[in-house]
Specification:
Blueprint: H1 7-13, E1 34-40, H2 42-47, E2 74-80, E3 86-93, E4 101-107, E5 109-118, E6 123-125, E7 129-131, E8 146-155, E9 162-164, E10 168-169, E11 172-178, E12 191-195, E13 200-202, E14 207-209, E15 217-219, E16 226-231, E17 238-245, E18 252-260, E19 267-272, E20 290-292, E21 300-303
Parallel strand pairs: 1-9, 11-19, 19-21
Antiparallel strand pairs: 1-4, 2-3, 2-5, 5-8, 6-7, 7-13, 8-10, 11-16, 12-15, 12-17, 13-14, 17-18, 20-21
Length: about 300
């Protein structure tokens, strides 16, 4: 079901190990005189805002919602030569001077650049790959809000070598609303798991893919009825498992919503009850009630 996108290339062909700073070691030294290169994403950083409120108004930025915030905290800048080898890397934090402006120098030539921005620090592993599952024997954790832009550039002494880029959101957002979820307590637990989440992100082209061990990812519970998280799997459908106690015996039961499509820059909402099912319109005889709710981009609302 899940497409594995360039896993061998991303995990073995790229060069350097985990780093959070500008690094120069273990990289091939490009030949030739270097010329300045300037990449700016300041306009993008300024216009990234929180999601609208349920009533359609923008949230107060001072009232930060940790689950829905889209304030950029980290920027990762990669330069690739032929064969997608990393020749330069810069990591900026929001506390750094000139955040959003990448000042670099490169020998004349053709390069691929990749910019990744996120609302929290990302884990970078060997091969210049981001992951939310550094140990494949453990369950992945949700990615933060992630944005990406890649471009092929030509650096020359005669050119300005100035680039002004705007990144695009490459994650979706999954929310599960359980109308009759029991109160949060030790003896009435409810958990929501996502199967087939992509756990790796390559900055060469912004591709994400799954690893060898597809362990379900837990969707955090935000309130009695609401579970939500950003999701990297936007190329193929996912499965959502809701594990909940039987009201009489307390035995754990599982409700599975199959083949849920999650799109980039869109919010997918699963709404329904565990213990009593609302009537389903005849035109949705498969048991799903679908409606559209524009939050980021076109969003899907699915009843279960």
């Amino acid at each position: 079901m899940k497409k594995s996108l360039f896993a061998a290339l991303a995990l073995s062909a790229l060069l350097f190990a985990c780093s959070k700073e500008k690094t120069t070691q273990d990289k091939p030294a490009p030949s030739g005189k270097k010329v300045p290169v300037n990449v700016s994403i300041t306009d993008f950083v300024k216009k990234v805002e929180q999601l609208p409120s349920p009533l359609g108004r923008k949230s107060n930025l001072s009232a930060k919602d940790s689950s829905l915030s889209t304030e950029i905290s980290d920027i990762y800048f990669f330069v690739f030569e032929s064969h997608n080898q990393v020749v330069d890397f810069i990591h900026q934090r929001s506390t750094d001077d000139n955040f959003g402006i990448i000042a670099d120098s490169l020998p004349e030539g053709n390069y691929r650049i990749g910019l990744v921005a996120s609302t929290d620090s990302l884990t970078l592993i060997a091969g210049a790959v981001f992951t939310n599952q550094p140990d494949e024997t453990m369950a992945p954790t949700p990615f933060p809000d992630v944005f990406y832009k890649g471009a092929d550039i030509t650096v020359s002494a005669e050119g300005t070598n100035i680039y002004d880029l705007s990144l695009e959101r490459i994650v979706g957002f999954l929310e599960v609303n359980i109308g009759d979820a029991p109160a949060i307590s030790a003896d009435s637990s409810v958990t929501v798991n996502l199967r087939f989440e992509n756990s790796y992100l390559s900055p060469v082209y912004g591709d994400s893919y799954s690893g060898a061990f597809l362990i379900p990812m837990n969707i955090p519970r935000r309130s009695q009825q609401v579970f939500n998280a950003f999701v990297m799997s936007t190329y193929a459908d996912v499965f959502v498992d809701i594990i909940y106690p039987d009201r009489t015996t307390g035995a754990l039961l599982t409700k599975t919503i199959n083949y849920v499509g999650i799109d980039k820059n869109a919010k997918t909402i699963l709404s329904g009850n565990l213990y009593s099912a609302p009537p389903v319109p005849e035109k949705f005889s498969n048991g799903f009630n679908v409606s559209i709710n524009k939050i980021w981009g076109p969003s899907n609302e699915i009843g279960f």
